């Protein structure tokens, strides 16, 4: 602690970021007919960076990365120094942690002249802001006097990524999560893993791979500084919760995003996890209409039949009537009885019914114009856009609904290639 | 003596033969094929270069003077300076011995005979040889990192598109039957890419390379269409060089889309040698590794199976670097150790082995590797990276790093005339 005295030990600290791949050789192109060309020279001029270069500065660090340092205590006097020990603490704005060091050595120890006590320390930084590495060396002088000194190394922990989330509640129980991840580091990074770890109430499907298992980002999974990319997840409540609307309403925690990235500093790894993401609340009102069975594709001028379920989400019993509230602009006509009685439904109970429309227009058709009225309360509930269906001319032609391309197009282009 | 030596080149130039034919690139490649280039517009412009500095101070000697003046006696000199001739052979001998500054002085002496020396003459006459000397001079300036001088002296050349750089535009009778570019192809690449790249103007270098690539492809295609296979092969090699240069630029600019595109382009070239393909995928993998894409790197490394000991060595080094990227320095150490067994004198492998020792907490072993490598083969192992790493470790080891670094400086001074990196930066003096 006393800076006045000349200490018998020297403390050296080197931050161990990843080494850099370099080659300082100025390899310059020449041909055999050129004056400076040497016979021994390499025959190709591909980048030859394969020398590992040690880090040349203490540098900054990003949240989620691991701080590593080489700590070396050197005896710089001509006699032995006993009871030598080193302690490393990492001090941040809110905490102070002790980093383990010399796990495999008996400490304190005696250092003879020119001997060192050295080790590598690791610690994953979990907080943003100024950090100070405090290294304290304790030893006993030959005269039996306990001595100690400290050294401080200040560095900044910076925020590497900006994560923004948006939720979309689908008409079904599914929730779509859109996560935008922005690289706010100074370098190119590679997002190695971006996954949604669902909470106990949900299961999650990543929508970021194509059908053959490759990433939708192709080979371009590197993110330049300030650039961002979006990831989509489809989240479904587990069956026991999906069938119980009350629990479903309560299950707000969807899960955490788990992000692993590697920097362009020879793949230095960082990992971040968001806090629990909260879905937006579900408001069913008094009645909930859901589609329980329907095709996504249908033929024109043929009846299209689908099954619906109406659930009483209010606290009272309801006597329900269903009728089609046809507005003149819509071209898709319901067929069948324009008004039917659905009967009495107790709270939290449901009733299934079947509807038929007769599509007369090609393309994506949205089904709506449904009106349900509560006889007791004389209240009318209107439902729009309850279902989308893709109306085609001929069902025997195969369609890939993900791409909206006719399948029979593909063999034609293949035939062209082989010809 | 000097003048008569030079007269030889002029005579040969005017006799429509070629001194450089003695270093034929490939059998069957005539000077016309080698010097072929797409003619620019006849712009009537002339090129008037001049040497701006003749003697270069010796940075290693001045470091010695500052730190340990007694050692100046042991300063490395060219081994065979008595027999050194003042001509191309002299330059070659000096370059072979890494005496880049001496070779530079020689280029300026030879150029003064063309009226392009320090005191430039009235009439400037370009010949294949004078331009070859200029190419060598700029080449050496880049080698010893005198980039500002290189920039200044090469300004007069532009992109070598002035009228007096082409036989077709020169009025001399003697050249009537000759066609093509006076400056060699490598000079074009040097001025368009290597110099701006070193000057940190990668974007400009990239733009220039696009033009060079277009011309090179045109000529390559020309010969391929004529079914002249030897010539086509010769120009294909040049196209590969240009594409490799673009990769270097794009790597520096971190333009990964371009890098992938150029690698795909390279793989489309006909009849690539297996060795080259192997190194191509290896370099591709390393670029991915550097920017953190470990899985793609691994895929690239495993694309071409290794079939000979040379591949085996590269594959081991690649695996070692992959382990480093994955923070597994024990595994990396094992792999570099295996590579070391295959090639005991490889300074790159020794260096990487030492780095692994440090990350595994074994600083003393790391230092021992550098010290023994430098002691055993100072000529080859005084590599800028090994020196910089060794000096870094000395600083970590104790308070006595200064003394140990000066010991390194003494070894450098006694063994190397010039280094390809600034000595003070190398040894952190």
From TrEMBL, chain A:
Residues 7-157 form the Trafficking protein particle complex subunit 13 N-terminal domain. It comes from Chironomus riparius. GO terms for cellular component: TRAPPIII protein complex. Belongs to the TRAPPC13 family. Residues 298-391 form the Trafficking protein particle complex subunit 13 C-terminal domain. Residues 161-280 form the Trafficking protein particle complex subunit 13 middle domain. Transmembrane segments: none annotated. This is Trafficking protein particle complex subunit 13.
UniProtKB/TrEMBL annotation, chain B:
Gene3D superfamilies: Tetratricopeptide repeat domain (1.25.40.10). PROSITE patterns: TPR. Keywords: TPR repeat. TPR repeats lie at residues 313-346, 347-380. InterPro entries: TPR-like_helical_dom_sf, TPR_rpt. GO terms for cellular component: Golgi apparatus; TRAPP complex. The keyword Coiled coil does not apply. The keyword Ribonucleoprotein does not apply. This is Trafficking protein particle complex subunit 12. It comes from Chironomus riparius.
């Amino acid at each position: 602690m006393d800076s006045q005295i000349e200490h018998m030990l020297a403390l050296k600290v080197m931050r161990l970021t990843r080494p850099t791949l370099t080659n300082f050789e100025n390899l310059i192109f020449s041909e055999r007919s050129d004056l400076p060309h040497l016979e021994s020279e390499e025959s190709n001029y591909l980048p030859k960076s394969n020398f590992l270069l040690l880090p040349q500065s203490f540098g900054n660090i990003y949240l989620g990365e691991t701080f590593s340092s080489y700590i070396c205590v050197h005896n710089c006097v001509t006699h032995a120094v006993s009871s030598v020990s080193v302690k490393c603490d990492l001090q941040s704005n809110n905490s102070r942690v002790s980093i383990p060091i010399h796990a495999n050595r008996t400490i304190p120890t005696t250092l003879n002249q020119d001997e060192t006590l050295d080790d590598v320390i690791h610690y994953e930084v979990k907080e943003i802001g100024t950090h100070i590495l405090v290294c304290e060396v304790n030893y006993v002088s030959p005269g039996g006097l306990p001595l100690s000194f400290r050294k401080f190394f200040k560095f900044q922990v910076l925020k590497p990524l900006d994560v923004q989330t948006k939720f979309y509640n689908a008409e079904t129980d599914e929730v779509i999560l859109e996560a935008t991840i922005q690289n706010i580091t100074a370098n190119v990074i590679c997002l190695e893993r971006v996954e949604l770890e669902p909470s106990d109430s949900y299961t999650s499907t990543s929508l970021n791979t194509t059908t053959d298992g490759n990433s939708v980002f192709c080979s371009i999974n590197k993110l330049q500084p300030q650039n961002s990319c979006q990831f989509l997840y489809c989240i479904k409540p587990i069956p026991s919760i999906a069938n119980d609307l009350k629990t479903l309403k309560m299950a707000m925690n969807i899960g955490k995003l788990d992000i692993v990235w590697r920097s362009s500093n020879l793949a230095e790894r960082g990992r971040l996890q968001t806090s629990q993401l909260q879905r937006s609340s579900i408001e069913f009102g008094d009645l909930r209409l859901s589609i329980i069975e329907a095709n996504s594709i249908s033929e024109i001028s043929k009846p299209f039949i689908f099954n619906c379920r109406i659930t009483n989400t209010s606290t009272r019993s309801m006597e329900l009537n269903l009728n089609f509230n046809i507005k003149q602009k819509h071209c898709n006509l319901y067929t069948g009885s324009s008004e039917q009685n659905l009967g009495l439904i107790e709270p939290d109970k449901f009733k299934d019914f079947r509807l038929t429309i007769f599509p007369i227009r090609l393309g994506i058709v949205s089904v709506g114009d449904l009106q349900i009225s509560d006889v007791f309360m004389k209240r009318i509930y209107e439902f729009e856009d309850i279902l989308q269906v893709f109306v085609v001319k001929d069902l025997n032609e195969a369609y890939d609904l993900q791409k909206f391309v006719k399948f029979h197009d593909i063999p034609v282009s293949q035939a062209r290639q082989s010809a | 003596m000097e003048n008569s030596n030079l007269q030889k080149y002029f005579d040969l130039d005017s006799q429509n033969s070629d001194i450089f034919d003695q270093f034929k690139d490939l059998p069957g490649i005539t000077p016309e094929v080698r010097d072929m280039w797409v003619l620019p517009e006849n712009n009537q412009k002339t090129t008037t270069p001049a040497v701006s500095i003749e003697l270069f101070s010796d940075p290693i000697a001045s470091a010695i003077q500052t730190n340990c003046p007694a050692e100046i006696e042991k300063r490395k000199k060219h081994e065979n300076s008595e027999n050194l001739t003042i001509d191309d052979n002299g330059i070659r001998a000096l370059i072979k011995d890494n005496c880049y500054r001496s070779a530079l002085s020689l280029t300026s002496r030879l150029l003064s005979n063309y009226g392009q020396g320090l005191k430039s003459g009235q009439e400037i006459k370009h010949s294949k040889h004078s331009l070859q000397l200029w190419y060598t001079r700029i080449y050496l300036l880049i080698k010893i990192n005198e980039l500002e001088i290189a920039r200044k002296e090469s300004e007069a050349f532009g992109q070598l598109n002035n009228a007096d750089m082409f036989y077709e535009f020169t009025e001399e009778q003697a050249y009537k039957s000759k066609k093509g570019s006076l400056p060699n192809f490598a000079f074009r690449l040097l001025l368009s890419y290597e110099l701006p790249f070193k000057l940190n103007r990668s974007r400009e270098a990239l733009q220039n390379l696009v033009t060079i690539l277009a011309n090179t492809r045109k000529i390559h295609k020309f010969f391929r269409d004529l079914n002249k296979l030897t010539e086509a092969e010769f120009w294909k090699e040049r196209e590969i060089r240009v594409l490799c240069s673009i990769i270097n630029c794009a790597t520096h600019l971190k333009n990964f889309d371009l890098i992938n595109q150029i690698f795909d382009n390279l793989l489309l070239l006909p009849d690539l040698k297996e060795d080259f393909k192997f190194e191509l995928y290896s370099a591709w993998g390393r670029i991915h590794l550097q920017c953190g894409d470990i899985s793609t790197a691994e895929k690239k490394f495993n694309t071409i199976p290794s079939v000979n000991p040379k591949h085996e060595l590269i594959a081991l080094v690649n695996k070692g670097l992959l382990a480093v990227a994955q923070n597994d320095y024990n595994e990396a150490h094992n792999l570099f150790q295996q590579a070391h067994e295959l090639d005991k004198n490889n300074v790159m492998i020794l260096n990487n082995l030492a780095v692994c020792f440090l990350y595994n907490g074994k600083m003393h072993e790391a230092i021992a590797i550098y010290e023994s490598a430098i002691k055993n083969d100072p000529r080859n192992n005084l590599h800028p990276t090994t020196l910089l790493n060794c000096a870094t470790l000395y600083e970590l080891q104790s308070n006595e790093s200064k003394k140990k670094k000066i010991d390194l400086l003494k070894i450098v001074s006694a063994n190397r005339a010039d280094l390809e990196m600034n000595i003070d930066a190398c040894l952190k003096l």
